[in-house]
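The instructor's notes for this session suggest beginning with a concrete chain rather than abstract definitions. Hand out the sequence below and ask the class to guess, before any prediction is shown, which regions might be ordered.
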Amino acid sequence: MAQQIQDLVASIRKDGIEVAQKEAAQIISDAKAQADDIVSQGRKRASQLIEDAQKEIDVRDQSARASLQQASRDVQLSLKKAIQKQLDTLLVEKLEKAFSSEALVVLVTSVVKELSESTKTEIQLNEKDFKKLASSLKSELSEKIKGGLEIKAVDSVQNGFRIAEKDGSGFYDFSAEETANLMRPFLSSSIAEIVFAQAK
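After discussion, reveal the predicted structure:
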């Protein structure tokens, strides 16, 4: 009887140990599977975070490049405007100087010979240039003056000269500003060609 009890106890113990070992093995297996799942999800999450970060970096990089390109264009346009403004000012200044010298006599004479019908036109100068250049102009244009051309000082001419119809119906303006305006488109394309060729 004692032997049977011992055998029974041994059998129960053996069965209990086997069950415990199976449960332990299952727990370990489940834990490993859960750990593998956690590691796999962690890797996926890390991979997604890296991918998202790379996309954000790419977007920021593209945005920075676009901003830099826009800033570069803005600087080039500002520089172009500043250079153009400076050249326009210099052009007007140079023309004003040329128009207040004896060179104006040559220019007026050439223009009058090409444009005017002396009986209908007059040369208009400012008071200062009229006093300074009238005698030279009268000498150079004596034939036209005999034909009716007049040379006058008028307040509305600041520099240069005008060839005007005597009846006031029209005139050609050869002031420094108007001459600079006529020349400006040709200079602008030259400046753009030289200075801004690399920016295109």
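Then share the key points. Residues 113 and 144 are 8 Å apart (CA to CA). The helical segments are 2-99, 103-115, 127-140, 142-146, 176-195.
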